[in-house]
Specification:
269 residues, 37% strand, 3 helices, mainly beta, twelve-stranded mixed beta sheet
């Protein structure tokens, strides 16, 4: 991520780019939409606000802490560090949350990512916080196979544990790649349903500080992005239905599953 003139990171950034989904079977179905994300230091939330963006405050663009982690408004930083320690991972570096903001009070986040660094600044874990349109959440704590540093070449994976789309079963594996540079951020996700890769997903874009000017420009460029995300999900689902892609009913979910943090595919914390 880029830095300020004094050599420090800003407390929050915008990532302006696009999201791409491509389904490979039984028909090819692909779409690309422009989006923007936040990447925010959860230990410096109080420093991130401005005239256009606020934390737990009424702004045209905002982030509500109750939407993440413990979902009770308590410290996101402390919650994530507790889970890192419970997993035997370093909890002494910066933690950054990448997510869609609320726009005019509205948001739906298919997935948010928590980037967890050690004291040296190396990326050591990523928490993928996945939400579906039924109000359910599944959290996957991703670490390198040797629990070492995660680089752009590191292959991270976890078993799929939650119903997300009626056109996919709850089985198979997610494969993740994370790549940051000084000016760009990218996440690649492949979903393997057990018969090979079924879907490719990529999200990313250019990084800029979340100052008043950046927030205003992003909001004016895509004022209805949040509402549009849900509309586009249902629009693309209708297209898949029209193409006669097999439809799967939502399975029952175990009580308390929303509160679990699953470490890759071996254990739950």
């Amino acid at each position: 991520m880029n830095v300020l003139q004094d050599g420090r990171h800003a407390p929050a950034y915008l990532i302006r780019g696009q999201v791409m989904h491509e389904r490979l079977r039984p028909v090819v179905h692909r779409f690309v939409y422009p989006v923007f994300y936040l990447r925010i230091n959860v230990a410096r939330l109080e420093d991130a606000g401005n005239r256009w963006f606020g934390i737990d405050r009424r702004r045209l663009m905002s982030l509500r802490t109750r939407d993440y982690g413990p979902r009770d408004g308590s410290s996101l930083d402390a919650w994530m560090r507790d889970h890192l320690r419970n997993a035997g991972l370093p909890a002494d570096g910066e933690i950054w949350l990448q997510t869609f903001p609320r726009l005019f009070g509205v948001v739906f986040n298919p997935v948010s990512f928590w980037y967890c660094h050690d004291r040296s600044g190396a990326l050591r874990a990523v928490l993928a916080e996945v939400n579906n349109t039924f109000g359910e959440t599944q959290r996957y704590l991703l670490v390198a196979p040797d629990q070492g540093v995660i680089s752009a070449d590191t292959h991270l994976q976890c078993a799929k544990l939650m119903h997300v789309s009626p056109f996919c079963e709850v089985r198979g594996t997610y494969h993740f790649r994370f790549r940051d540079t000084a000016t760009t951020a990218m996440v690649g996700i492949d979903y393997d349903d057990g018969q090979g890769v079924l879907m490719h997903t990529a999200v990313g874009g250019k990084v800029q500080a979340l100052d008043r000017s950046g927030a205003r420009k992003a909001l004016l460029a895509q004022p209805f992005m949040s509402a549009g995300i849900l509309l586009k999900i249902h629009w693309q689902a209708w297209k898949l239905w029209r193409k006669r892609v097999p439809f799967f009913s939502k399975p029952e979910r175990a009580a308390g599953a929303d509160s679990l943090v699953t470490l890759n595919k071996e254990t739950s914390l």
